[in-house]
Design brief:
Structural class: mainly alpha
Oligomer: single chain
Radius of gyration: 19 Å
Length: 121
């Protein structure tokens, strides 16, 4: 799967949130955050279909647009990409960096400890 651009994330998020939508519905969902016109949204949807990111049901009118990938798959790919690019794949270094900048509450520390204790390594 190719790395998603910020714009592709916005389009997919609108589609995930709706479960599938017409062009007009996608435009209305995206307009507050992006200000994109109908033509811009249609261009993104068409390009994203060619990349295999969006499906278009053309059987009925208006056409229905859906995300071709589930949110969890995209999130996992993005997490791994970030981890590889920034922390050379080291989850421990990532967690340590966050903990240095934002200390945990006692409750959060207990949950993290329990999570680490229960992990199968």
């Amino acid at each position: 799967m190719p790395r998603l651009s910020d714009s592709e994330w916005q389009v997919l998020t609108a589609l995930w949130d709706s479960g599938g939508a017409s062009l007009g519905e996608v435009v209305e969902a995206l307009r507050p955050a992006t200000g994109w016109s109908r033509n811009t949204v249609l261009t993104y949807l068409t390009r994203m279909e060619k990349k295999g990111l969006v499906t278009i049901d053309k059987e009925n009118y208006p056409h229905t647009y859906r995300a071709a990938l589930d949110r969890e798959t995209c999130q996992a790919q993005e997490r791994q990409s970030f981890l590889d690019r920034v922390y050379r794949g080291s989850a421990g270094d990532l967690v340590a960096a966050f903990l240095k900048e934002s200390p945990l509450s006692a409750e959060e520390r207990d949950r993290l400890k329990a999570l680490l204790d229960n992990m199968e390594v």
